[in-house]
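To assess whether the prediction recovers the assembly geometry, we first specified each molecular entity separately, as shown.
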Amino acid sequence: MASLIEEDIMTDDGEFVINIGPQHPSTHGVLHLKVWLDGETVKKVEPHLGYIHRSIEKMCENLSYRQYIFSTSRMDYLSAHINNQACCLAVEKGLEVEVPDRAKVIRTILAELTRLASHALWWGCMGLDLGAVTPFFYAFREREMINDIMEESCGARLTQNFMVPGGLMADVHPNFVAKTKELVKMFRQNLPEYDQLLTGNVIFRQRTEGVGILTKEDAISWGCSGAVARASGVSCDIRKHYPYDAYDRVQFKEIISTGCDSWARYLVRIEEMKESFSIIEQLIDNIPEGDIVAKTKNVIKLPKGEFMAKVETARGELDVLLVSDGAANPYRCKFRSPNFSNLSALGHMAKGAKIGDLVAMMATLDLVIPDVDR
Amino acid sequence: MSREELQAAITAALSDRAEPRGDEPGTALITFDEGGQFLNGNVARENIVPVMKKLRDELGFNYLFCLTCVDWKTHFTMMYHLRNLDTRDELVIKSKIEDVNNPAIDTVSNLWQTANFHEREVYDLFGVKFYNHPDLRRIFLDEQWPGYPLRKNYEDPNMIEL
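The predicted structure of the complete assembly is given in tokenized form:
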């Protein structure tokens, strides 16, 4: 966190220093950007973090392997399911337990629903950041439906905590299949509206095309992942390259663009939603019968060693690293969050851009600040 | 590449031309651990930058996706998770820091920009100093924060024992 002793608001070179945030609507949370400006042109951006640092990694050292999963729903709260999934996969790797097929498939469907909800919210906020208020309400129409499905099966709308080591906490609601099918059908029908509202909008395109260039080399060097890296031509979809749960039994395309700008990042996410529809449709009719959770001991103890699981959240690659010394709680627990690395590239992308475009760039990074700070 | 092939390739690339600083000539720059989920390579603290540079430039490990530290009470272990984005091979490089009072290691942020933020995080929470880091400040906590929270001997003055 920055010490808030203000420097001169004007440097010797005549550059203004302004603070955006930590309470600014366009930063989607408590992100504080210190921006050096020459007129309208951004000279330097310095993200200041830590306003919502809860030291989840330290807390996890005192939690058992069943408990630590729940604290991760509060990291990237828009991908809560996927965060939980990563934690479960890491524990399962240590226990070498085989997850039942039914649990695997349901987990994958839930992860894709989460991705859809997250991308829908991102799309609405993206419009909002650029001054279009209407898209937000359209996006929330679909998002509400997904949240209702979650609520019915998992009991919560945002921080679901439905996954446990070995499978799922409970079976899904009897309505789950029908409702999910209905959602996918409706979402597919409504997606053209998204295109009409933003994708084809001239103002929107002019504000995103050619803005916030991140080359492939830079994306790799800055450790970007997810849609941000894929829009720069880096093939990095964890679901494709290191399949987990049921991703090895579905067909889907990895969306890669070489546009490298904000527009490309926008398009990649829109196309990803269509792939998520397809993944859900392939699985929803073929949920195998059987157990929902593998038998594990009440008190889980992992053998000595290091266990890492990686998943593709809605924002990119999340790695959970557990260092175990054989006890019932992790000796060290590290979350490599996608937003942390993606955000670090912002200063590089924004150099030389106009201040108005900075907001557009932040929108396409799809930042969730609790995930950055952890 | 299988694990054995990868290990052989790395050993070959790191043996002949490398000039270990201060070590006896002929000492291997890298030793490997048995077992584990990834291929684990141990590198001496002094050699971390030349080894990482070779891994990046000659063996194609171009993506540093995780950088962290573990406090083992008697020493710190820096962990670098590397990935080759073409072959999808993964590798963990570990480096031991013996000095627990003043831990320090060379920065790799001139090889990977992402290391800048990750090293600041390790500095903030473990107090490991990184030589030649361009901007070594605390990233989450206040500059005046006493102690380094992720160290095992950290005591929070405000903690209430239940």
